[in-house]
Design brief:
One of its GO terms (cellular component) is plasma membrane. With about 200 residues, the chain is mainly alpha-helical. The protein contains 7 helices and 2 strands; from the N terminus they run H-H-H-H-H-E-E-H-H. It is about 60% helix and about 5% strand.
Length: about 200
């Protein structure tokens, strides 16, 4: 069979892209994206298992999930571009339990992080003010590029999934046509040849 002799049609970038996204969201304590990335990694593994173990249903689940994943990444793009009343400075992605922002907001290319002591100001002693300057690219555009890449990968994965399911379906149809997996068809009857029957009657 093609599906059992070939390598998995899901290339390693599917897994690497999901893991890379998860790492940077963990660094930024972005809890909503962390949860979404975790589900995405599970579904990708399920799709790989379905491909290796000849389970088209698992691949269909992956194909359906790609639509959800694309929708989520479109939301992330709208969030950081502040489309439709969304604000990148809100605590929506942290479930309103912390004021953390994207890890790239302080660690982007060219960014210099400076801390200024707040001592002398009542109620703010032992605190510091953090400013970030010199960023070559604003962090929200980095997040937008991340999400855009995820959308591209998801679309490629959807095409692969549909192709693999179609191949599996064609193989199942061809097996049914030539007798399927039944070694002895139902209509098979073990009869003696006609000439042997005539000889027995003559005797």
């Amino acid at each position: 069979l093609w599906c059992r002799s070939c390598n998995s049609p899901f290339p390693s970038p599917f897994q690497l892209a999901a893991l890379e996204r998860q790492v940077f969201d963990f660094l930024g304590y972005q809890w909503a994206p962390i949860l979404a990335n975790f589900l995405h990694i599970i579904i990708v593994i399920l799709g790989l298992f379905g491909t290796i173990q000849y389970r088209p249903r698992y691949i269909v689940v992956y194909a359906i999930w790609t639509a959800v994943w694309v929708t989520w990444n479109i939301f992330i793009i709208c969030f950081y571009l502040e489309v439709g009343g969304l604000s990148k400075d809100s605590e929506l992605l942290t479930f309103n339990i912390s004021r953390h922002q994207s890890w790239w907001s302080e660690n982007g290319p060219g960014c210099v992080r400076k801390e200024a002591s707040m001592s002398g100001i009542k109620g703010l002693d032992n605190h510091s003010y953090i400013s970030v300057i010199g960023c070559a690219l604003e962090y929200r555009y980095i997040e937008v590029m991340h999400s855009s890449f995820q959308i591209l990968i998801a679309l490629v994965g959807f095409v692969y999934a549909c192709y693999v399911v179609s191949v599996f379906t064609e193989e199942e149809d061809s097996f049914d046509f030539i007798g399927g997996f039944d070694p002895f068809p139902l209509y098979h009857v073990n009869e003696k040849p006609t000439n042997l029957l005539f000889k027995q009657t003559y005797l």
